[in-house]
């Protein structure tokens, strides 16, 4: 049986059809990929929040944003590595790994939707609520009076109180992985809201659940916002 050869016009028509189908499928594939990353971020935050709850139960203190191992040594994420990777020696920046000369968060400490250029050391994927963290100014000295939370059972509205959340700090040589209000979550030119169609952030709450919040629902005055610290 003789097979008819394609004419040039017929070949161009086939190529055009394939191109049209690809252009229709690619957005759907991108949406599916981003949705998978959204789900992964939720899982990561829930895992980190679980570590934090375990840490507070064991140590009766919420870690400081920095200075947990000495003067400006030991970020809050470093203290949780004992649960994520028990054999890890707890040192400054131990929650990161170095690639291409920069530090990147390990495992659940990184948001899959981060572009990888949040700052010069690539670590500010997640931040801690400054109203919850122990306040030692990063110097490693933790007076008893500065320990804000010893037991999460004391928090009056645990399902409404933010604990850990998305944060984006651009072009900073000193990443500040903490915020006290909406403005502190997004700092520097190019900082972006990574979730809810680039209009919000994921929060892990004191009771352990994770939910996305539109940026317009995130208070700009943390001291007068239940999400941050109003009822304490």
UniProtKB/TrEMBL annotation:
Entry membrane topology: Single-pass membrane protein
Tagged with keyword Membrane: yes
Taxonomy, superkingdom: Bacteria
Keyword Transmembrane: yes
SUPFAM superfamilies named among the record's database cross-references: Pili subunits (SSF54523)
InterPro entries per UniProt: N_methyl_site (IPR012902), Pilin-like (IPR045584)
Subcellular location: Membrane
Transmembrane segments: 6-29
Signal peptide from the UniProt entry: none
Alphabetical keyword list: Membrane, Methylation, Transmembrane, Transmembrane helix
GO cellular component, one term: membrane
PANTHER family with a match to the protein in the record: GENERAL SECRETION PATHWAY PROTEIN G, TYPE II SECRETION SYSTEM CORE PROTEIN G
Protein name: Type II secretion system protein
Species: Victivallis lenta
């Amino acid at each position: 049986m003789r097979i008819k050869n394609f004419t040039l016009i017929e070949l161009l028509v086939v190529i055009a059809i394939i191109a049209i189908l690809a252009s229709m499928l690619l957005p759907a594939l991108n949406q599916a990929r981003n949705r998978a990353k959204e789900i992964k971020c939720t899982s990561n935050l829930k895992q980190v929040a679980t570590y934090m709850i375990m840490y507070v139960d064991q140590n009766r203190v919420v870690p400081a944003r920095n200075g947990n191992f000495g003067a400006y040594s030991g970020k809050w994420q470093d203290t949780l590595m004992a649960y994520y990777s028990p054999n890890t020696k707890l040192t400054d920046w131990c929650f990161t790994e170095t690639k291409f000369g920069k530090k990147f968060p390990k495992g659940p400490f990184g948001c899959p939707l981060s572009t990888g250029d949040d700052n010069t050391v690539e670590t500010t994927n997640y931040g801690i609520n400054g109203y919850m963290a122990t306040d030692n100014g990063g110097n490693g000295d933790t007076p008893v009076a500065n320990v804000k939370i010893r037991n999460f059972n004391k928090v009056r509205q645990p399902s409404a109180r933010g604990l850990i959340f998305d944060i984006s700090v651009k072009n900073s040589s000193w990443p500040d992985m903490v915020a006290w209000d909406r403005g502190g979550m997004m700092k520097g030119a190019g900082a972006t809201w990574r979730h809810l169609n680039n209009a919000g952030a994921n929060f892990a709450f004191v009771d352990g659940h994770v939910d996305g919040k539109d940026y317009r629902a995130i208070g700009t005055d943390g001291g007068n916002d239940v999400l941050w610290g109003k009822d304490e």
